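Re: folding output
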Amino acid sequence: MRPPDTANPRVQNMTDEAAGKIKPARPQLVLVVLLVMLVAVFLWSFTVGRYAVPLPDLLTVFFRKLFGLSATWSSTLETVLFNIRIPRIIVALIIGAALSASGAAYQGLFRNPMVSPDILGAAAGAGFGAAMAILYSAGSITIQLVAFICGILAVMTTYFVSRLISKGHNSVLVLVLTGMVVTSLFSAFISLAKYTADPNNKLPEITFWLLGGLASITAKNIKLILIPFIIGIIPMFLYRYKLNALSFGDEEAQALGVDTKKMRFIYIFSATLLTASSVATGGMIGWVGLVIPHLARMLVGPNYKYMLPASVMLGGAYLLLIDDLSRTLFMVEIPLSILTAIIGAPFFIYLLFKGRDSWV
């Protein structure tokens, strides 16, 4: 197998030509700036919240822990940092990166800038699994596992039903339409679960979970989301140059030697892992996978060699900032999907005006 980023110069040339007006002079420099921004947001997130942690104290704790020195801080500070802040911040970064990468992959795969990570039913399936688990009083880890499994099953249903309908051909339209049907079906199941739930106990819990939030995140959640994230993100990065070819259509991709069936399956599988694990951990958080890839495309161009890493870093930083706002704006914590919609919808309209000529 040839190295991913240099496998076919024609893919690179076609992508560069299609980038047109928005091709940045130095996308590598933009990636470095995004990395610095991500680190800055990561460190700043430790310092905000009900229990303020000054940055010098934070660096002191990390330094002394790293070199095994004796503790000079209170037990309260250690509890806040290691039991609450660190798990929550890491999970927010992973979810933001996962949803952004999935959205970027699907937008290229389906050649549609309006596509989001829940296009094939992963979010609705995971939401249904979580609602049923909550309905039967399952623990938090069980809820996450059931939601993840149901998200995978929903996308598998979409994929295999579309294959049967299209009789084995690569019909993107049939796949998208089947995904819409499966999403509607699982959304109806979610409504049924909410309708039959106890209105004084289970219904508020299901509703709050579906709105998205990271208030109950612990170190165990990191382990459960990190494994599918690694499994899903690695193939995306290894084969991202082939996504450049797929974004021009199946005929052009096949002419360049790309196995479209194989690549489509790999990307759907990877994006499903990322989306299902994110929804299973943090609830149904919208707009991240739709808005962030557009912003990344405007910053570094449509070449997935740069656009996918940019989406990952932007998505992680964005959701981390949203989570910081959710726990500091008011006395009560605001569900993440409310803030992502309030911020994402107007910003998306702006991006449509600003980058309407940038889509490949």
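--- second protein (sequence, then structure) ---
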Amino acid sequence: MSKKIVMGGNDAIAYAVKQSFVDVISAYPITPQTSIIEKIADFISKGEIGTKFIKVESEHSAMAAAMGASIAGSRVFTATSSQGLLLMHEVLHWASGARLPIVMANANRAVAPPWSIWAEETDSLSQRDTGWIQFYASNSQEAYDFLFLAFRVAEKVKIPAMVCMDGFLVTHAKEPVEVFEDEISDFISIKEGRDVLDIENPKAYGALAFPKDYMPIKLEQNRAVFEALNVFNDVGNKFTSISKRRYLPVYTYGEEKADVAIVSMGSLAETAHIAVDNLNASSLKTKLVKINMFRPFPKNELKKALADVEHIIVLDRDISMGKGGIVKDEVAGSLGFDNVLGFVCGLGGYDVTEGDVEKVVKDVVDGKIKEDSYLWGEK
């Protein structure tokens, strides 16, 4: 029996952690992630969960402690944001290379300088090559649900996963979230077998590997990351049978045979969702193509969703300096389509409305915009 509770994405993540039989949490506070850990600490202090909380002095140490706990066989969770995620960068490679199924929530926040606490996805997208699975939640319900899916997928393929959600726009915005009572227990209590530290059978993690061994190890790691796409579909089917909510690597909405496709992820997808309704009401056949899983990159799913679309418009709440929008670059580069235009927008929480999105779409269709640009205007 499920019930609805009004909460933000941070509360939703904490609530899901409470229900996920997590053994160990190590984390360091940082805005706008802090309330995740505060809420979990409250659960622990009240005896509502028996999770061990490790207090550390930095985000680098938080991930190092998470690794140690995971190597010992624990189910492990952590959370961070922005500069904290960047401080973890070195250890993220160690965690994925050691094939440790740690799950982390990241509150997407702009990267300094200048100092900012508002939403931007450059922080997590700059970690896309660390070997972590990446989910992007558009609302609090997805944040809650993706946490369960992340544990199951990560533990099946033995690759760590992060659930990303835009700071304040998702982490703190309150909305009704349908939460489980006991019906999720059988789903989330499954813990896949894996090699762990054993004092009777000593082994080393991260030992020196010569070239003849290093490359095969990395190719196998890469294969496992790609396998997460299939596992996500399989685990998603089981999750649907419990929740009646269906998640795929790529979600589509709007006109099936559209002339225009808006590609986005995170909170921008919620704005684009409204824009699609308005554009279709004005007889401009449009659809939303939302990326739920950015790593592994869902190339085939996107190719199918974007086939035969005349105009593909990618909205990026991120920027790769000297290149442009990261999502646009990956969509265009992977699919080989020459009709993809990218628009960098919403940096540092800069406001993006459905009207902004609608105007860009109409300008592209009318031929007023023919190259990558910015969704920009005085606010």
